[in-house]
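FORM 7B: Structural annotation worksheet

SECTION A. Query
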Amino acid sequence: MTRPPTAAQRRVIDGADPGTGRLRGTEAQLAALVKRGLAFRHPRPPHDHFLTPAGHRIREAPPDAEDPARPAEPPSSTGVFAARVGGEEDAATAGPARAREVHSAWEGLLELRRMTNPDADTGRPCGWERAHLVRAAALALEAAGHRAAGPEGDGYRVRATPQPEAIAVYGPDTGVLRACAATLEAAGWQAGEYTEPRTRARYLLASPRRV
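SECTION B. Predicted structure
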């Protein structure tokens, strides 16, 4: 279970800069938001604090929409939204609430790129994405409107590989794979189509671009 923010934390979240998500508050308040994955501390001076995508979602939701009984999504080190990688039971379901969450998460990730890439480049994956390859690639795909595979396997599936900084994307046909490749390349990844020697299945091998 997850608890909603306290009234004081909610005021700090609501007072975030609407453009950058920059926060103002006491050190204790900011530290508490970081601990809950709702904010992150910028690594460079002056070490300001900014909302994570999870924090942005709370700011955009009305206070009475926060349900303390709703199960929390699997946490990550920064609270970044967990996109569907394919194979989840609810992967085929969609709706306005899900679309808003995905949009907010993608916008938050672009802001994370801007704040943490040395040259503030939003077109190139950042350190968090390199540390969470599967989730990062899945977010790029879901944010672009691709459908994750449900139990019947009719959409994309993103999976880890033994290769460093590389993930595999599987799909029901080459059309889906090529559309996914175009999306990943536009999001700052390198992607190529390959064939598995044993099964002859086609798949994408993708890795975040460094330059």
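SECTION C. Observations
The first strand starts at residue 39 and ends at 41. Helices lie at 7-14, 27-35, 53-60, 96-116, 127-131, 133-143, 174-186.

SECTION D. Sign-off
Analyst initials: ____
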